[in-house]
Acyl-peptide hydrolase (Geodermatophilus poikilotrophus), 692 residues
Amino acid sequence: MSEPSDAPTTASPSGSPFADLAAFAALPRVGGLALSADGRRLAIAVQTLDHEKTAWQSALWEVDLEGRRPARRLTRSAPGESSPVWAPDGSLLFTSARPDPGAGEAAEDPKPALWSLPADGGEARPVLTHPGGISRVALAADSGEVVVTASAMPGAGDAEADAERRKRRKEAGVTAILHEAYPVRYWDSDLGPATPHLFWVGELPAEPDAGAERPPVELRDLTPDAVPPSGAGGDLTLSPDGRLLVRVESVPDGPAGRRDRLVLLETATGEARALVDDPLADLGAPRFSPDGSAVVCVRESMSTHDEPPDYTLLHVDVATGAARELTPGFDRWPSAPQFSADGTAVYFLADDDGRHALFRVPADGGEPVRMTTDGAYSDLQVARDGSALYALRSAYDEPPGPVRLDPEATGQHPDPLPNPGTLAGLPGTLQEVEATAADGTPVHCWLVLPEEASAERPAPLVLWVHGGPLMSWNSWSWRWCPWVLAARGYAVLLPDPALSQGYGQDFVRRGWGAWGEAPYTDLMAAVDAVEQRPEIDESRTAAMGGSFGGYMANWIATQTDRFRAIVTHASLWDVDSFIGTTDAAYYWEKEWGDPLRQPKRYEQNSPHRYADAIRTPVLVIHGDRDYRVPIGEALRLWYDLQKRGVPSRFLYFPNENHWVLTPGNAQVWYETVLSFLAEHVHGQDWQRPELL
Ligand SMILES: CSCC[C@H](NC(C)=O)C(=O)N[C@@H](C)C(=O)N[C@@H](CO)C(=O)O
């Protein structure tokens, strides 16, 4: 494989990169963020195309916090680098499956190892390996001690025995997995026979003198009893002194059910006890306070047939396990909490009115306050001296980039930092629209208008329905990018119908267990509202969506013929068969009920029951490695459409999962969608994408 390209391409020669799918695929994509302990260095992960343009490679870049120099690339290898963490000595730890230059012959199936890039630059060196690969690194903020996650074979006491077991299975040609608990798959991976364990690494050895042997790093299994299906793969946090670790543990909950609890573990002995174990809730996203005496976490109440989940933050005393609600009465769903530098406040993120905003709440109780006005934030980092916050910020009209925020101020517009992913411009404008549902409820929407849309040249309209369904259109998306459509002259409507996040619990309740009702009528109300605009051509419209959005695209196809085309990606068609085969049936079954004993919701809301009503041409898209919405949904939908003679096409990806994640396939995805829209919305001849 060749080296990845250095300078990312930000514009195509012919104009907007959104008008040219190859240029669009070449735009740099900024991901994770890591701040050093002294608050002086910031690393980001940036994905760019490799030389062959067949893969996106992730590399680590450093951002100048003074904003004087452009971001600087730190790492460079074909397999790429991810999960950056700064060690207290200023070195940068990361995981990578790059070859070890000192290890002789390259491994046949290289696994990610832990690497360290010295503080003063120079060559990165491998620090530790495991036969199952290193998937995650956690660092104690004060002591600098390290814990890693790696998948271990059942019964293998050490790395040597683990490697031996893997070798024997390989030599015998055995790939079979025996399961004794639900589930058996997650996302696009088979669970087992290896399962994630946590290993204590402790202090990392200092860089050896030139020519000296590297001292071996011993791994101590902190979770020897971790069992499939989840093992010790949940989120975790280390106390600043490295003495304690709190991890999310997935435990059985009724037949074929799971729930998450918090477990406290002494790192010196491996002794563990439940810290928060609530039979009526999932606990997640734990983070230690700066003095290690408390943990903040998210509590998600178990949904029921009648009631959706609700989220709140808990402040947990580590010594006693006493938990106190931090956001009672806050009618939004808090996520990703973190203590302020002095421990007196907690920052968190929440969907709010078409934004994903940053909030702050006093740690000893009080009202949460929203700190940011616009945009969607992620990867929040708190400078340990309390001087600043850093995060990635995006919006529907801006891809993610690093920013600095004031730790106290409200109503903030953060300072942008040098961003290798800055765009030169967009092929249109973004507007905020409020439609009104039949019951008077406001429905928030974003509307993308192409540059040329006007009363004289009204634009065709594409309704794009988000997934989840408990989500919100509020951040940039490379997978669902409306600007690619805008560059071809389409207006794109992005509504947040009932069930969406950021409008309060009652807004979720409106659609709970009744997906074909308020969520559908809210979408139609939004389309009705924008079709009134002179710059929209109401006679040329289409609807599309992925995942839950694909469910809704299918539902729309069965309920109305007002659209000229439907595009349905990774969609739910027969909800009973979906729930029985997805990787997390327990997530859905509470809302929908047992299909044999409580069939009503399935009868009323499963699109496949109304297949005879479909009149609109449908483009079906699905990946075979999709274990979230398994391929059986698309196979049955395709059969049902073909049997009924509905004009339809099926774009099938044998190697993609729920999302289309490789550059070639992603371009073909957009190309096929655009061809299908051109055929049915504009009445043009079908243009089969060249590579299909
Ligand atoms: C809160 S969003 C994810 C909800 C849901 N989770 C589980 C465990 O099933 C989920 O994955 N829903 C999919 C059907 C879906 O609509 N996914 C969307 C949103 O993530 C997608 O774009 O993939």
Summary: The domain at 83-416 is CATH 2.120.10.30 (Neuraminidase). The chain has two domains: 83-416, 428-681. Residues 377 and 393 are 5 Å apart (CA to CA).
